[in-house]
Amino acid sequence: MITNRQIKQTAWSRVTTHFKAAFLLSLVPMIFTVFGVMSDHNSRDVTFSQNVNPTAQSITKAANDMGHFLQDNWFTVIVVGFVFFAIMMSFAALVAAISDFFTESTVSGFIDWHESDRTPESPIKAGLSLLTNTAFQIAFLRAIYTLLWTLLFVVPGIIKSFSYSQAVYLYRDDLHAGRDIQSAKYYIAQSQQLMTDHKGQLFIMYLSLIGWYFLNFATFGLANLFTLPYTMAIRAEFYVALRGNQPEKTTIL
User: Fold this and answer.
1) What integer pLDDT is reported at residue 88 of this predicted model?
2) CA-based end-to-end distance of the chain
3) Nearest 5°: phi and psi at 102?
4) pLDDT digits (tens, 9 = 90+) for 177-201
5) Domain ranges of the chain
6) Under 8 Å CB-to-CB from 99, ≥6 apart: which residues?
7) 102 near 156, Cβ under 8 Å?
8) pTM
9) Buried/exposed 198-209: b ≥16 CB within 10 Å, e otherwise
10) Cα–Cα distance between 132 and 140 in angstroms, integer?
């Protein structure tokens, strides 16, 4: 396994030498990022025109009313709360899966670029080449697993996110090699095996990019024009190094 420094050097060379192609390859995740920044900015600009000044008496009355309501309808409150929580969890997993769906397709395009050693003729199309039902199923199931682990504690959720991180790329290799396509659960399990003893390396890789994240913050996301293609290329090079550049063996662990 080559070092993180070598992986980043390869990704840096690819992006800086062919920036236009790398940028277009990452265009769709870039659009998601822009909308995310705009949404966050708009949410911070929301103000309330009404000036509500509740009195102590009204607060006490509201608290008493709420207490009586909960006492009389505790079972209904629990059921409604559980259903609401399940819906919110499913929605969060869906949003994460949609974002990852396009991001992983972009990384797959960078893997194709590495394997062919040729600049994509149509970078945007190359970045959308892995938008399949199975890829989305993997992204969605992975998001659910990660959220459930995170509910237990943040650290296990982070560790599991690293364990599951290569699942879509393993599926990609089977798809490109013409092998039988397995279930989403299978590829997630294979990713966990592949990432054994390598989760720490991936964590250190992401940690080494913290300066770029601060730069994005300082430039209000403008630096993402470069950092996003760069990080996508790094993820691709990490997987290529991880599998030993032998796609025919990626599902035989």
Assistant:
1) 83
2) 16
3) -75, -35
4) 999 999 999 999 999 999 999 999 9
5) 4-36+66-249
6) 29, 32
7) no
8) 0.81
9) bbebbeebeeeb
10) 12
Residues 203, 162 contacting (CB under 8 angstroms): yes
What tokens appear for 181 in the block?
A: 């396509």
Q: Which long-range contacts (CB under 8 A, 24 or more apart) does 225-229 make?
A: 225/23, 225/30, 226/15, 226/19, 228/26, 228/29, 228/30, 228/33, 229/15, 229/19, 229/22, 229/23, 229/25, 229/26
Alpha-carbon distance 11 to 14, whole Å?
5
Smallest CA-to-CA distance from 236 within 11, 21, 38 is with: 11
Please name the residue that has the structure tokens 């364990």. 163
Crossing angle of helices 74-116 and 56-72, in 10° steps, is 90
What are the φ/ψ torsions at residue 151 (nearest 5 degrees)? -65, -35
What number of CA atoms fall less than 13 Å from residue 127's CA on the CB side? 21
Contact 12, 230 (CB under 8 A): yes
Amino acid residing at 53:
N
> Whole-angstrom Cα distance, residue 209 to residue 5?
11
Q: What are the helix (H) ranges across the chain?
A: 4-17, 19-25, 27-44, 56-72, 74-116, 123-126, 133-152, 154-163, 167-177, 184-194, 199-207, 210-218, 224-243
